[in-house]
Automatic annotation (TrEMBL):
Name assigned to this protein: Uncharacterized protein
InterPro entries in alphabetical order: Luciferase
Domain of life: Eukaryota
TM region(s), chain numbering: 25-48
Organism placement in taxonomy: Eukaryota, Fungi, Dikarya, Ascomycota, Pezizomycotina
Keyword Transmembrane belongs to the record: yes
Keyword Transmembrane helix: yes
Region (Disordered): 85-131
Alphabetically ordered keywords of this record: Membrane, Transmembrane, Transmembrane helix
Amino acid sequence: MPSLLTTLHNLIPAFHRPLSVPVPVLLFTVTLPPLLLFTFTFTLPSLLTSYRTYLAIGPGGVPHNLFGFLAQSCLRLIARSDGRASPPPYRRGRQQQQQQVEDVQLVKGGRGRGDGGNENSLPTGAGDRPVVPDFVAPQRQTSMQAAPAMVARMQAFLSELAAGNPSVLEIRPSGLEGKWHNAVFLREAAGTGEGGGLNVPEFMGMAKGEIVHVHSEGSSHVTLSLVDGEEAVRVGCYPGRRDIP
């Protein structure tokens, strides 16, 4: 049976051998698990609250489940926290938009049919704002919601608008919100140029001709040209929200 000294002599050299793993890597490996556990423990309540809110506001835009919640959470990393922040999107490509600016200003000056002739056609945005959870998608207000009867009136108005202008407008499921919401679209021109329709403007690229849709709680999304978007921000009608640049 080996003596105690012999045993110690055999063990001690092992403590003086060079480490096979670099010290920084070893420290990272040792400290990472408890750090992740600490972070997860303190952020879990906030994540659960956010996920419950996400489910409560209803479907739209991304899957109405955990995968959709994770997807919009990832999009937050590249999203602007406020669409009014500098540089504002309506200032991009200003030179290319100059002719459009001049055309719209001419219409507003009285050559249109009355839609833009009044300088006060857009109300100022003074007053209380609804609460809108900070999601990239879907975007809904959780306060100051409309009654179901008002939502029905809004949807009926859009249907009547499209029915009254069948050569240029149509109703179909929203491309931005998905099958849960109908939207007003520009009716695209056929390849032959017959049967009416319009060419979708370049600024409606992502929207693919979608003009407006109504959400179940009474809010709406509207696609605006750069000129109209600038005016909406100027008078305070656009409250600012998280969006993709």
